[in-house]
Design brief:
The complex is a heterodimer of chains A (382) and B (138).
Chain A: E1 12-22, H1 29-44, E2 53-57, H2 66-70, E3 80-83, H3 89-103, E4 108-115, H4 139-154, H5 158-161, H6 163-172, H7 186-190, E5 194-196, E6 199-200, E7 209-217, H8 219-224, E8 233-242, H9 252-268, E9 277-279, H10 285-295, H11 303-309, E10 319-320, H12 325-328, H13 336-349, E11 362-369, E12 373-381
Parallel strand pairs in A: 2-3, 2-4, 9-10, 9-11
Antiparallel strand pairs in A: 1-7, 1-8, 4-7, 5-6, 8-12, 11-12
Chain B: E1 12-13, E2 25-31, E3 36-37, E4 53-58, E5 61-70, E6 82-89, E7 94-98, E8 111-120, E9 126-134
Antiparallel strand pairs in B: 1-2, 2-3, 2-4, 5-6, 5-8, 6-7, 8-9
Classes of the chains: A alpha/beta (382), B mainly beta (138).
C-alpha cells in the first residue's frame, strides 16, 4: 500500500539561501548557484560534507550543470541528480529530496535551483500533432485569454485583476533578492508596455537568472551534526499531479491547481482558510485570482473583492506572494519553486523582516509547469 | 477544392460538415469512449488511452470564450498586432486560433464561424488558412 510523505519520518527544512533573481548578466551560473548553496549552509549551520545527496533543478541550462558547480564546495562524491520539470523543476526537486529524507535513504539533502535565460525548445512540438496557430499563442497570450474569460465569467474588470501586480510589486520592493524591487501604482502598471489582451509588461513575470537553495534534514541527521529543531520548519505535505481531461480544456491550470492543492491540504489536515502565507505561480496577474479561488482561500469569483479588502496583503488574513511572487521577485525557472520554499521558511521562522506576515504558522507553495504539471507543498512551524 | 491549396490540410477542409455545410470543417476525431477531440491524431485517446477512434468532421461553428489582441510577438511569420480567440466548437472541443476581425474585437459569448483567408506558405506560395470570424448578424 502506498504511503503519504507525512506518514514517513518527519522532514524539516533547516537552511535557505538565495542569489538575487536579476536580468541576464555575464555571471556564470556556477557563481549564482554557489552563492545560494553557501548561504543555505550558513543558514543551517552545516558544513558541506554533512550533505549526503543533492538535487539540482534547472530547465534552461544544458545537460548536467550540477557537478561543475558543486565540486567547488569540495568533491565529496555525494549523489547528484538533475530535475527538469519546466516551471515546476524546483518544486519537483524539493519533493523528491523530501521523499528521500523521509524514507531514510539520506539524513541531509540539498535542493538547489539555478538557471540562466537561454533558448530551449518544447518537446510537445516534436509530437507532430498539428495546431491551427499555437505559434501565435505565447504563454502571455494563453493567460491573456484566461484573463478575458475570468473577467467575463466573474464580472471583474481587467483593471481589477491588475491590482495583483500592485500588491506583488509592493511586496517585492521589500525583498533584497527580488528582480523588481520597486513599488508601482495601478496607473504605472496599466500605462506600461502593452503585451497581449489586458496585460502590460508589469503584469507579467520578467525573464531572468538567479539561484535558490534549501537544505532538508531528518531530526536524527540534525542531532548527529550537533543541531536541534529550533529553526526547523516541517514539511507537512507534498503533492504532485499532471493534467487530466477537463470540461473546459483552456482552464487546465486552475483545474490542476484545485485538485493538487486539495490533496496536499488533506494530507496536512489543514483547511485552506487556516493558511497564513501562500506563494503561488503568479507569472501573470490572472493566475493569482484563479489560483486563490482554486485552492479555496476564497469562494469562486471572490478573489477580486478579497484582494481589494486587503485579505491577501502582508498583514491581511493570508499573505499571498509576500516575496513579490513571480511577477516581482521573478521566475528564473529552475530556482523558482525552491525560492518559494525559502520564502515560506523565512516567514514561518519569523525571519522575513519587512515582509513578515504576523504570527505565520502554516504556509503553502504552489507551482504549475507546462506539460502540464502541478506541485503543492504545505509547510508548518513547529 | 483541392486540399493542396490549404496551408494545413491535415487540420481542416474547405467543405463543411453535414450540420454546417457552408463553413469549412475541422478534422477531429471521436473515440469509442465518446471523447471528441481536435486535431485528429493516431497515438491514443487522451481520455481513455484506447486506440479505437475514427476521424470526425467537426462543424465550423462555435461560441467565443475569450479573445486577446496581441501587441508583442517574437515568433517568425506572425506580425503583431493580431487577435487570437478561444472558441468552444458546437461539436465539443475548444480550439484557440486567430480571429479574422471585421468589426473590432468580438466579446465572449459571440457566435463564431470558420472562414478561409489567403496566406503564403513558407516558400511564398499562395495558400488558404483557417480563421474564425464573428457570424454575420449574430
Amino acid at each position: 500500500m502506498s504511503v503519504r510523505l507525512n506518514e514517513l519520518r518527519p522532514v524539516y527544512v533547516v537552511g535557505v539561501g538565495f542569489h538575487r533573481y536579476q536580468f541576464l548578466t555575464d555571471t556564470p551560473y556556477v557563481e549564482l548557484g554557489l552563492a545560494a548553496v553557501r548561504a543555505a549552509l550558513v543558514d543551517a549551520g552545516l558544513a558541506w560534507p554533512a550533505v549526503e545527496s543533492a538535487y539540482v533543478a534547472k530547465a534552461l541550462l544544458p545537460m548536467a550543470p550540477g557537478r561543475p558547480m558543486l565540486r567547488h564546495l569540495g568533491a565529496t562524491g555525494l549523489p547528484i541528480v538533475h530535475v527538469e520539470n519546466a516551471s515546476a523543476s524546483g518544486s519537483a526537486a524539493f519533493r523528491h529530496a523530501a521523499i528521500e529524507v523521509a524514507a531514510g535513504v539520506s539524513d541531509i539533502a540539498l535542493v538547489v535551483g539555478v538557471d540562466k535565460p537561454m533558448p530551449v525548445g518544447r518537446a510537445e512540438a516534436l509530437a507532430r500533432i498539428g495546431s491551427l496557430a499555437d505559434d501565435a499563442i505565447a504563454p502571455f497570450t494563453h493567460f491573456a485569454l484566461l484573463a478575458d474569460a475570468y473577467a467575463s465569467r466573474t464580472g471583474a474588470s481587467l483593471e481589477d485583476i491588475a491590482l495583483v501586480a500592485v500588491k506583488n510589486h509592493r511586496n517585492g520592493a521589500k525583498n533584497p533578492f527580488a528582480q523588481h524591487q520597486k513599488e508601482r501604482t495601478l496607473e504605472d502598471i496599466l500605462n506600461g508596455k502593452k503585451i497581449a489582451g489586458a496585460f502590460t509588461s508589469l503584469q507579467c513575470t520578467p525573464v531572468g537568472e538567479g539561484a535558490a537553495a534549501v537544505i532538508v534534514a531528518s531530526e536524527e541527521g540534525l542531532r548527529r551534526q550537533g543541531l536541534d529543531l529550533s529553526r526547523a520548519v516541517r514539511v507537512a505535505a507534498s503533492a504532485g499531479r499532471s493534467q487530466r481531461v477537463y470540461e473546459d480544456a483552456t482552464r487546465y491550470d486552475a483545474m490542476l491547481t484545485e485538485e493538487t492543492a486539495a490533496i496536499a491540504l488533506e494530507e496536512a489536515q489543514v483547511s485552506p482558510r487556516a493558511l497564513d502565507v501562500v506563494e503561488l505561480h503568479d507569472a501573470f496577474t490572472v493566475e493569482e485570482v484563479e489560483y486563490v479561488e482554486a485552492m479555496g482561500l476564497c469562494a469562486d469569483g471572490e478573489a477580486v473583492p478579497r484582494l481589494k479588502d486587503g485579505e491577501f496583503d502582508i498583514g491581511g488574513r493570508c499573505a499571498v506572494s509576500p516575496s513579490g511572487g513571480l511577477i516581482s521577485m521573478g521566475h528564473p525557472i529552475g530556482p523558482t519553486g525552491v525560492g518559494q520554499i525559502g520564502e515560506i521558511v523565512r516567514q514561518l521562522r519569523g525571519e522575513a523582516g519587512p515582509r513578515q506576515q504576523p504570527g505565520a504558522r502554516i504556509g503553502l507553495a504552489h507551482m504549475v509547469g507546462v506539460g502540464a504539471v502541478c506541485y503543492v507543498h504545505v509547510l508548518q512551524a513547529l | 477544392m483541392d486540399p493542396a491549396s490549404l496551408l494545413k490540410p491535415a487540420l481542416y477542409r474547405a467543405e463543411g460538415s453535414a450540420t454546417v455545410p457552408d463553413r469549412p470543417a475541422l478534422l477531429g476525431g471521436e473515440c469509442a469512449c465518446g471523447y471528441v477531440f481536435f486535431p485528429m491524431q493516431s497515438y491514443g485517446c487522451e481520455k481513455c488511452g484506447g486506440l479505437d477512434f475514427k476521424e470526425r468532421k467537426l462543424s465550423g461553428a462555435g461560441t467565443l470564450l475569450a479573445s486577446a489582441r496581441v501587441h508583442l510577438h517574437a515568433g517568425k511569420g506572425r506580425e503583431a498586432p493580431f487577435t487570437v480567440g478561444a472558441i468552444a466548437l458546437d461539436d465539443g472541443p475548444i480550439v484557440r486560433t486567430l480571429i479574422e476581425e471585421n468589426e473590432g474585437d468580438p466579446r465572449p459569448g459571440r457566435r463564431m464561424v470558420t472562414t478561409l483567408v489567403a496566406v503564403e506558405d513558407a516558400e511564398g506560395a499562395p495558400r488558404l488558412d483557417l480563421r474564425f470570424t464573428p457570424e454575420a448578424g449574430a
